[in-house]
Structure formats: C-alpha cells, structure tokens
C-alpha cells in the first residue's frame, strides 16, 4: 500500500511518521527506539500481534491491563499508572487519508492516555485501518472495529453475533461510550504514527 499521501498529511498535522512493510520491522524499530522507560499499553490486538509487551518488557517497565489485570486486592491498576508513563502505545480504530485518528472506548483509559498524561503517544496502525474519508472511518470504527472488540471482550450486546454491524445498542455492556477524533497531536505531546503495510488488529 502507498502510504505517501497519509504520511504527508500526518506530518503536516504535527506527527512524526514511520512506515514499515511488515509488523516485524515495526516491532524491531519500536524495540530499538524505546529503552529504559515506563511504557503503558492501550487495549489493542495490534500491539499483541507485534509482541511488543514481551519485547519491550525485557528493557523497559511495561504496564498493560491485558496482561496484568486491572488491579484490586492491593495491586495497582496499570491503566491508572499508565497515565503517568513516559510512553503510551496504542492503535486506532480508524485513520483517514487526511490524517484524522479515530478511537472508540469503553472505560476511557485509552482515550484519557491519548489525550493527556504520558509524554509521548505512539499509534501503531495496520493498513486495514486506513479509510478514504471521515465518514468511512467513523463507519469502520462503529461497524467493523467495535463489534469485533465486543466478541474479543465477551460483552453481551446485539453485535456480539451475526454480521458485523453496530445496532447502536443501549445495553449495559455497550463498549462504545466515547469517541475521540484527533485532528493532530494534543498540545505539548510528542506523537508518532507507525504505519505498517499489513492487516493488523480490528
Ligand atoms: S454501540 Fe452497542 S451494538 Fe453498536 S458496536 Fe457498540 S456495543 Fe455493539
């Protein structure tokens, strides 16, 4: 896939951009670039597929509720600790050609860390997340990414089975409780987008 246009648009908005042909190359880059830091992970299949928790964990302090749970019984919640991390790693639900980044969240930890807190935020994005327009990106986030995350998380909502589509449910298990659209990095944040020419995550 040709990332030239989206890469130029992201740079114009203030992001640093790296492009890779494979997930392995991207993981090698991030493993080399992030060292001796506290690194928090947002909920993400993409990050899991890159094996970043295991790799970065050998030479960084890593925080990820997908591996460490959400605290309790005297244990801290890695999602809250992650707000003060040096680096926040996440993916997106969709990215527009124009450089807008869309994310839907349930608990809000991912959105909070994207917007404020860690000194640097890094978005790791497979080619399947790229959409031609904002409308297509919003449709993707709601009708492709969210229902698959429902199935991964075992939530009981109308989109948990059958065709992939959002029913705009009012379920107590609804995972779609907030949407962020980044027009650019939040002021004072270092922000990087890592584009990968493979289908990754949802
Ligand atoms: S709003 Fe409800 S039905 Fe729609 S994707 Fe989210 S959880 Fe599924």
Q: What features would you describe in this structure?
A:
The protein starts with a helix and ends in a 6-residue tail after the last strand. It has a 6-stranded parallel sheet with strand order 1-10-7-4-2-3. A 4-stranded mixed sheet has the order 8-5-6-9, sandwiched between helices. It has helices at residues 4-13, 23-33, 45-50, 52-56, 65-68, 78-81, 109-115, 134-153, and strands at 16-20, 38-41, 61-63, 87-90, 94-96, 101-105, 120-126, 130-131, 178-182, 190-196. With 202 residues, it is of the alpha/beta class. 33% of the residues lie in helices and 22% in strands. The site of iron/sulfur cluster (SF4) has 15 residues, from helix 8. Iron/sulfur cluster (SF4) is lined by residues 142, 146-147, 150, 157-159, 166-169, 171, 174-176.
Named once each, the bound ligands are: iron/sulfur cluster
The radius of gyration computed from the alpha-carbon positions, rounded to a whole number of angstroms, is 16 Å
Counted by DSSP, the helix tally is 8
- Helical amount: 25-40%
Number of strands: 10
Biggest β-sheet: count, sense, barrel? 6 strands, parallel
- Strand arrangement within the widest β-sheet reads 1-10-7-4-2-3
Quote the distance from N terminus to C terminus: 18 Å
Summarize this structure as a short list of keywords or feature phrases.
Rossmann fold, binds iron/sulfur cluster, 6-stranded parallel beta sheet, globular, 202 residues, 8 helices, 4-stranded mixed beta sheet
